[in-house]
Write a structure and sequence with these properties.
The structure holds two protein chains of two kinds.
Chain A: H1 2-7, H2 9-43, H3 48-59, H4 63-74, H5 81-105, H6 109-118, H7 122-155, H8 165-174, H9 177-205, H10 207-214
Helix pairs in contact in A: 2-3, 2-5, 2-7, 2-9, 3-5, 4-5, 5-7, 7-9, 8-9
Chain B: E1 2-10, E2 16-25, E3 30-34, H1 41-48, E4 56-61, E5 64-65, H2 71-76, E6 78-81, H3 93-97, H4 99-103, H5 108-121, H6 138-150, E7 156-160, H7 168-185, E8 188-193, H8 196-202, E9 205-210, E10 214-219, H9 221-226, H10 231-237, H11 241-245, E11 260-261, H12 267-273, E12 278-282, E13 288-293, E14 314-316, H13 321-330, E15 335-339, E16 345-350, H14 351-376
Parallel strand pairs in B: 3-8, 3-9, 6-7, 7-8, 11-12, 14-15
Antiparallel strand pairs in B: 1-2, 1-4, 4-5, 9-10, 12-13, 15-16
Classes of the chains: A mainly alpha, B alpha/beta.
Transmembrane segments (chain A): 20-42, 54-74, 80-101, 133-159, 179-205
Subcellular location (chain A): Cell membrane; Membrane
InterPro entries (chain A): ABC_transp_perm/SBD, MetI-like, MetI-like_sf
Chain lengths: 215, 377
């Protein structure tokens, strides 16, 4: 494990950083797309069941299959990382739509009524009242989506997109378990670091939650 | 002035929440909407700032048809206090209160200064400014709710059961402070409650609404208690209404002067001062402290706090006959204690004397009635 790292530092670090952006970019894109859809699902109550059911259905599509059919949908090259970014964004949206809707629904009815009565209108109310209050719920969803992405990205090695998953295929083809182990450790470290960053970000956005806990 | 003109709210499923409401809430006064669940009181309130749109009819704010102003303009000019306060959990107290001023585009400094001023006004410790709502008690949160509604100094305030979620003691305090605040501010207020006692205590006029959204009676609290218009109102106003109506009767009572004792007086002094076996103890400023049973002071001993009976309530000499009667009924000596505006003793009065005064009031009222009936006929 250590030997491989010593002998191929460039490969490993290149794969590591490829893994980082393949994990993070889809979650960010997914959140941006899920926000308006989640808002619709929470604002127009009747759309909540169909939207969240559809999202759940999307998530059940096997990832390998999605990676493989992406080029024929997008017209991209089979080895293009774009395929993975789009496919993983789909999964992130699928996970986050429900989370955003539930987060927005977590705003207490009295708070909603008060916001309306104060004269908050559409977007202002979304950005200044509903969204900040939904942050804890959305943060929890982001953590799940990010960690699950770190693991999904590695499957891309099977279709030849280089990242930490390449350590699994290399280790497998050379019968060296140490290389596979290195891949697992690095994936784990990456997942923990990203998870920690999201927790930190969530805390910075919600000083009011800690103030309550301190009481 | 807020004026309802044949206002109807009918839901698509056929439910009629408000059925042809006609009513005027005069400027600078508190109008209370009271009634059982389903009487349309909250719906009526929310139609004023168009959180609910009327199906038909018009609501006027002075000479402005509320249906013809933009919702946000309308709402930013109307203070709103909601049950459970509905504070924004993610904003500090000072920012919660500054909500409407900031929406109106005031600069931050001015809005904050106004917030702090209002915190003082509603009796909140300025140290709470940087706290979050969940760090405050229910009663404190409700004060913040009132301050938030007052922030942009709107002429009109809508209050939807603002004090119903706090315990009775805190509710009483909040009500008293609300009345004090209103006496300073003179807002046009619509106040919704399901509690008839609260309605009678706070309202300049009370609108009793019936299930199905019709107005059963619009009257002053005293009139509501003494002259309910039908069985529904009589039933809703409830028991003890004769007694409760005394809360609106005041009359000068001839207070009998009372010999008093002080802490440190000996048993002989108490025996001399006492009447029917009881003496009233007062402090240096002649504020009543409690009653002392003359026989309970051992000879050679002095009057101290441990000998006081504190059961009696105090009534203001210029207050209601209800308070005076209660003072007499609750007093261990049978003599109700009357005090002046400084809390100092004026004298005492017995229940019989208060009842006599009440009787003469009722006589006078009946005579008026008869005359009215004659001249009217």
């Amino acid at each position: 494990m250590i030997n491989y790292l010593k002998n191929n530092p460039d490969n490993v670090s290149e794969w590591f950083f490829a893994h980082v952006w393949l994990s993070v970019v889809p979650v960010v894109l997914g959140l941006i797309i899920a926000l308006p859809i989640g808002w619709v699902a929470s604002h127009y109550r009747w759309t909540y069941p169909p939207i969240t059911n559809l999202a759940g259905l999307l998530y059940t599509v096997p990832s390998l299959a999605l990676f493989i059919i992406m080029p024929s949908i997008l017209g991209t090259k089979i080895l293009s990382p774009i395929n993975m970014v789009v496919a993983l964004t789909v999964y992130s949206v699928a996970l986050l739509v429900r989370v955003v809707a539930d987060g927005l629904n977590s705003v207490a009815p009295d708070v909603r009524a008060a916001a309306t009565a104060m004269g908050f209108t559409g977007l202002g109310r979304f950005l200044k009242v509903d969204l900040p209050i939904a942050v804890p719920v959305i943060t929890a969803g982001l953590r799940v989506a990010t960690v699950s992405n770190v693991s999904l990205v590695s499957i891309g090695a099977l279709i030849g997109v280089p990242q930490l998953g390449s350590l699994f295929t290399t280790g497998f083809s050379r019968y060296i378990p140490g290389i596979v182990l290195l891949g697992i450790v690095l994936c784990l470290v990456l997942a923990l670091v990203l998870d920690g960053l999201i927790i930190l970000g969530g805390r910075l956005l919600t000083p009011w939650q800690r103030a309550v806990a301190k009481r | 002035m807020i004026k309802f003109e044949s206002v109807v709210k009918k839901y698509p499923d056929g439910t009629v929440a408000v059925n042809g409401l006609d009513l005027v809430a005069p400027s600078g006064k508190i109008t209370v909407f009271v009634g059982p669940s389903g009487c349309g009181k909250t719906t009526s309130l929310r139609m004023i700032n168009r959180m609910i749109e009327p199906t038909s009819g018009t609501i006027w704010l002075d000479d402005q048809d509320t249906g013809k102003v933009s919702e946000s303009t309308l709402r930013r000019g109307i203070g709103y206090v909601i049950q459970h306060a509905g504070l924004f959990p993610h904003r500090t107290i000072v920012d919660n209160i500054a909500t409407v001023p900031l929406l109106l585009g005031w600069d931050k400094k001015k809005a904050r200064a106004r917030s702090l001023e209002l915190m003082e006004r509603v009796g909140l410790d300025p140290n709470f400014a940087r706290r979050y709502p969940a760090q405050l008690s229910g009663g404190q949160q409700q004060r913040v709710g009132v301050a938030r509604a007052l922030a942009a100094d709107p002429p009109v305030m809508l209050m939807d059961e603002p004090f119903s979620a706090v315990d009775p003691v805190v509710r009483g305090e909040l009500q008293d402070e609300f009345l004090r605040l209103q006496s300073e501010l003179g807002k046009t207020i619509i106040f919704v409650t399901h509690d008839i006692d609260e309605a009678v205590k706070l309202g300049d006029q009370v609108a009793v609404l019936k299930v199905g959204g019709t107005l059963a009676q619009l009257a002053s609290p005293a009139e509501l208690l003494t002259d309910p218009v039908d069985d529904f109102v009589a039933g809703f106003v409830g028991r003890d209404r004769g007694y409760r109506a005394l809360g609106f009767e005041s009359g000068t009572l001839d207070a009998a002067s009372e010999q008093t004792v002080k802490f440190g007086d000996d048993s002989a002094t108490v025996l001399r001062a006492g009447r029917d076996g009881w003496a009233l103890a007062v402090d240096e400023a002649r504020r009543p402290l409690g009653w002392v049973r003359s026989a309970a002071v051992p000879s050679g001993k002095q009057v101290g706090p441990e000998l006081l009976h504190r059961g009696g309530t105090l009534a203001s000499v210029s207050g209601s006959l209800r308070a005076a009667l209660d003072a007499a009924l609750s007093s261990p000596s049978g003599r109700g204690v009357l005090i002046d505006e400084n809390g100092a003793l004026v004298g005492t009065v017995t229940a019989a004397e208060v009842v006599q005064r009440i009787e003469s009031h009722l006589h006078a009222r009946r005579d008026q009635h008869d005359e009215g009936a004659v001249s009217g006929g």
